[in-house]
Amino acid sequence: MAKIKLITFDLDNTLWPVDEVIRRAEQQCRTWIEDKHPDAAALMTVAKVRAIRDQLLRDDARYLHNLTALRRDALARGFRDAGYSDAEAIRVAQQAFDVFHEARNQVMLFPGAREILTHLADRYILGALTNGNADLRLIGLADLFAFHHSSETIGRRKPEPDMFLAALKSSGSRADQALHIGDHPLEDVGAALEHGFGAVWANLLSQRWPQELPEHPHRIQTLPELRDLVTLLDA
């Protein structure tokens, strides 16, 4: 690997834990619907909306690359099924999604996240590569990243090469000058290596490495460990 120029980060479960965040955001969205549209809420149960999302994915695989459109369109279909006109269903679904999205970006960073990002941003180009729909501006980290690519903005999710290629173009780097850090063994570590990046497994949630995959030598369990590891990899 050449001298490191670019470091890219996955976001959810790499810089903050996300599962409880999503549950809380869905509950706040549900509460908003119950408060503002109780007639629809009676029909739009959690199970019903989840079933609509599953059906949308079966009908159109492109939703896999755009989770915002999937969630928003599922809400719109739920409102239509509850008797709303198409225009009204779309309008109200956007309002409900906005409630979800605001709560979805109220995250608690893993310990040391901001400090290590600040340290690395002084020395390398930082980029964000995510399959999710986190908003770094709302989270308050946008100033530390030179760019933020997602499956929504690029049109393809990891492990496809598109996001990694976009990162190289945005940074003016070569793949052998790039290091990707993420929690997913396949979508982050495996994909990064396949596309010529170096990779670090961010195992901050103490997950098991899949037995069917070859062991990966570079891993961290806390973000501050990146300070020494990146220095070592860049030596």
Textual characterization of the structure:
It is a single chain. The chain is α/β, with parallel strands linked by helices and about 240 residues long. It folds into 2 domains: about 5-15 and about 110-235, HAD superfamily/HAD-like (Rossmann fold); about 20-105, Four Helix Bundle (Hemerythrin (Met), subunit A) (Up-down Bundle), CATH 1.20.120.1600. Helix content is about 50%, strand content about 10%. The chain has 11 helices and 6 strands. The chain has helices at about 20-35, 40, 45-60, 65-80, 85-105, 115-120, 135-140, 150-155, 160-170, 185-195, 225-235, and strands at about 5-10, 125-130, 145-150, 180, 200, 220. The chain has a 6-stranded parallel sheet, with helices on both faces. The radius of gyration is 19 Å and the shape is elongated.
CA radius of gyration: 19 Å
Distance between the termini: 10 Å
CATH topology of the largest domain: Rossmann fold
Query: Low-confidence parts, pLDDT < 50 over ≥5 residues?
Result: none
Q: Given the helix and strand composition, which structural class is it?
A: alpha/beta
Integer count of domains: 2
Fraction of helical residues? 40-55%
Element order: H for helix, E for strand: EHHHHHHEHEHHEHEEH
Determine the CATH superfamily of the largest domain.
Answer: HAD superfamily/HAD-like
Q: For the largest sheet, list the strands in their spatial order.
A: 3-2-1-4-5-6
